[in-house]
Each structure stands twice: as C-alpha cells, then as structure tokens.
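Box 3.1. Reading complex inputs
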Amino acid sequence: DAGVTQSPTHLIKTRGQHVTLRCSPISGHKSVSWYQQVLGQGPQFIFQYYEKEERGRGNFPDRFSARQFPNYSSELNVNALLLGDSALYLCASSLGDTLNTEAFFGQGTRLTVV
Amino acid sequence: QKEVEQNSGPLSVPEGAIASLNCTYSDRGSQSFFWYRQYSGKSPELIMSIYSNGDKEDGRFTAQLNKASQYVSLLIRDSQPSDSATYLCAVPQRQAGTALIFGKGTTLSVSS
C-alpha cells in the first residue's frame, strides 16, 4: 500500500510569491494535518482537516490556508512568501480523529524562499 | 501553552549499549504519547505509541509512561549505528483536534 505522498519534494520560490503544496493520505485515512519544521526544531502544527472540515489551526498567519478535497487529499497554500517560510513542510495522515489516533508522515516538501 | 520538553543532546552511546531518551509534558490530561524517529533530511517515522502507565515493548524499543510524573521515556536496547537519528516525542493537543505537539527532539549518536 502506498504511504502518504507529498508533492513537490523540493521547491524554490521568491519572496512575495505564492506556493501550493499537495498531499495524498494513506488509502482509507480521512484526516490530514500539516506541519512546518525548521532546522533544529520539532514539527509545528499548522492545520488539521477531517472529513473535509477544518478541525484545528495552529499559530500561523492568515497567509497560510488549506483545504481538503472529497477524495481526502489536501492542499496547503502560502501567500506572500517570506524568507522565514523556508522549511520542511510535512503532511500527516490519520485514520480517524480521536486522541489515540496514530499519524503517519509523508516525505515532506522542502521549501526554500530566496 | 501546552509544552513537550526533551533534552536536545546529543546523546552518545557505544554500539550494544542501552540508550535512554526522556520527555516531559505539561498537559496533565494527556492520554496518548508517540515517539518518532527522524533521520537527517528525512521525515518523522512513527516507532512507538503508548497510552497506559507502565512499559510497552516492541523489539529493541521500550516506551515507559508515568502519568503522575508527566514523563514518557524511550529505551533502545542493543543500540546500533543505524539507530543514530533524532527522536521526537509527541503529545496530542487536545484543544485542536488531534494535532500533535512535538518536543525539539533528542539527537542520538551510536558509535561502532
């Protein structure tokens, strides 16, 4: 079975541009979460979607937005990119939305803003 | 602000030794705890989940949970050079769905 897939794997953008990152969860999983990880830190929660509804939002500016599609895939959009947005963006897939649900990560998208 | 704390290390152990990684959390109501392994340049990989007080063993890995003291630990027996990685402790943020709060991670180095 395919795991969580993210695209693209690497991306270079210029300050002020917009970026869209994509994620396909494990088959049968209905929850997708997005995290940002900068070097030397643990992943920081950005958004969670379950059954196409937003279930949680982390402490990120409104430049960050996301959505989940009927097939449970998801997009993360970031507008007006800043140098500080350079990071590894991770998508995590979960079967359900309970506190003991295990989350599995994709390979990530490495975003560099220049 | 809920927090998860880990000693960033690096923790260095010789091959064959036991590596002990510790994590403390601030939310006394937390019920679920996860350990992830992250190799340099890669994404986190789930290696252990624990929900009840006590020990949970899976191969060379043992997770230990003490809710009264609010700490969870990961023991790696017979450490191998391939265990060299950053180990992340994660706890669900109960006020935001099942989003995870991560510690900064402990870097483990196993020398042969």
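In summary: Chain A is about 0% helix and 50% strand.
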